[in-house]
Design goal:
Layout (H helix, E strand, L loop, with lengths): L25 H15 L6 E3 L11 E4 L9 E12 L2 E5 L11 E5 L2 E7 L5 E7 H14 L10 H15 L1
Antiparallel strand pairs: 1-2, 2-3, 3-6, 4-5, 6-7
The structure holds nickel (II) ion (NI).
Length: about 170
């Protein structure tokens, strides 16, 4: 296993779309293992999407574990939201967007149903609400080339982009 570099906004690679996985073969299993290793080696990390890591041609995979003991790993391959309802507006941060300094409230669905493959390649449907639902929507956005900044009003986004310019100096 190997730790992989987490891309940092405004890296153009964050706009990549995750490649659909057809077969969960050894290559995909290795990528998943590397993603978990990177996740657990990164402080305050709740989840990672393959497209925010410095992979060549990243697949559509996200790994999630925000349990205190770091013992509830979840892996979603080709995740897709097939149902959403309700509304929540909570603070989000992102490992690719200055996680120690920048958080902003983002409007999301309160409940989602996600269709995906698990790490064994089995088709699953996963129902989530609250924090887990927020997390899945954030990660699926990454796999579509979006960060949470893309979900903000132009005014809020400009304010954050300005803050990032100052941090980068
Ligand atoms: Ni993120």
């Amino acid at each position: 296993m190997a730790k992989v570099r987490i891309l940092s906004y405004p890296d153009i690679k964050l706009k990549r779309v995750g490649k659909k996985v057809n077969v969960v073969d050894d290559e995909i299993k290795k990528i998943i293992a590397d993603m978990f290793e990177t996740h657990y080696a990164t402080e305050n990390c709740a989840a990672l999407a393959a497209t925010q890591l410095d992979f060549v041609d990243p697949p559509a995979i996200t790994v999630i574990d925000f349990s205190e003991e770091k013992n509830k790993p979840l892996c979603f391959i080709n995740p897709e939201i097939i149902h959403s309802e309700g509304e929540q507006t909570e603070y989000e941060g992102c490992m690719s967007v200055y996680p120690d300094h920048i958080h902003e409230k983002v409007k999301r669905a309160e409940r989602v149903t996600v269709k995906a493959l698990n790490e064994k390649g089995e088709a699953i449907e996963f129902v989530a609400e609250g924090y887990m639902a927020k997390c899945l929507q954030h990660e699926i956005d990454h796999l579509n080339g979006l960060t949470y900044l893309d979900r903000l009003s132009p005014l809020k986004r400009e304010r954050i982009v300005e803050k990032i310019r100052r941090l980068r100096k």
